[in-house]
Amino acid sequence: xxxxxxxxxxxxxxxxxxxxxxxxxxxxxxxxxxxxxxxxxxxxxxxxxxxxxxxxxxxxxxxxxxxxxxxxxxxxxxxxxxxxxxxxxxxxxxxxxxxxxxxxxxxxxxxxxxxxxxxxxxxxxxxxxxxxxxxxxxxxxxxxxxxxxxxxxxxxxxxxxxxxxxxxxxxxxxxxxxxxxxxxxxxxxxxxxxxxxxxxxxxxxxxxxxxxxxxxxxxxxxxxxxxxxxxxxxxxxxxxxxxxxxxxxxxxxxxxxxxxxxxxxxxxxxxxxxxxxxxxxxxxxxxxxxxxxxxxxxxxxxxxxxxxxxxxxxxxxxxxxxxxxxxxxxxxxxxxxxxxxxxxxxxxxxxxxxxxxxxxxxxxxxxxxxxxxxxxxxxxxxxxxxxxxxxxxxxxxxxxxxxxxxxxxxxxxxxxxxxxxxxxxxxxxxxxxxxxxxxxxxxxxxxxxxxxxxxxxxxxxxxxxxxxxxxxxxxxxxxxxxxxxxxxxxxxxxxxx
Length: 497
Known about the structure:
Elements: E1 2-3, H1 9-18, H2 31-46, H3 49-69, H4 74-93, H5 95-100, H6 102-128, H7 131-136, H8 181-197, H9 202-226, H10 233-252, H11 272-279, H12 281-292, H13 304-312, H14 318-326, H15 339-368, H16 375-381, E2 402-404, E3 407-409, H17 440-446, H18 456-461, H19 468-474, E4 483-484
Antiparallel strand pairs: 1-4, 2-3
């Protein structure tokens, strides 16, 4: 444990929080969490509740100020989300501090959630600068001399001349390289590198990557639907090839979160590949629709081709399909969408809206009925409110849009939803997916030797100690003001062994 005097607390916290810079060495990275935990053990077991409260409240204020000042610095954010998660693990593992620091643990959870959002916003800000030019405008294979129906170029010469042979000319040295899909994947790689560098828990890393892929998919989807330039067959082919680079990155950097459910010995949770596949599905299906709908067979005897195609667009609504076809840029001699197909899409949109309205009515009826009396509710009425002691369970995500034989069906609407899904055109890039912390079991296994106790090296890395060089910086070792008691055999069960 770390012995200190209360009049030295401000100076110690300034050293380990205010002026602390992100450290990369394995022994230095967890220093803030280690010192705060060891100091909390001293305050709890040999001090007073007032000393413990003063320590934790002062530390939280300084950490919040540090995070606020560096909210656009991913290295600082990664360093502190790692230390906050590790400190939460230490407090949950110590039987005495587990109950004495309940309020502080809640504040730590809120801090981790806040830093999680800040890391995502910083990564989005960096990618937003290149996303449009790198994915939507980059031409992997240029298509020259394309002519679109209804578009006239006043500068086009009447006498068509034979194009000159293409010759490669290297760009001038001072010319900036054009954005390409690798501009986005390099930012994803740098973000992942920082998260790995500061030993952030794999459950949190997986959710950060999933949120970034959701944002990328939503932004691309909205750009395409909102700009007529991208609503063309050849342009959809280009964008689809660029998005495949993002999918390749997800496969090459696939991560599986170390999350264990219901005593399972194998990990579970959404991998990077699964997250990319799910969150890029709307934009990929939109691009597929743009590439194929003009070539479908719409004859009276072959209407099944339209029906089968629509059924495969499980993440698109009839409104989105209609909008894309209404603003589509047809190439010359490309078949247009016949009236029979447009009428079918309008019918599907009407049916989707009717189902949504029916679900809203059913939901309002259920909410107006009194809830059934259950033993749990009786216990709550009597003052014996049952408490769920299971911590860290992931919240379920809203069911994705799916299809049946009659067209797209949306998930049951939430209370705050005002517009039916059939009328919503764009996605919400700012929407945050459900965030869940690693469970107590996840942290004990990831910060310990794992199942079977085989990873002894990792277990030693997360024994709360303070490097000698950092003790010298604190100037407490061997002095009359304080001392440090090393706990090599710490097992987190209360007093020192």
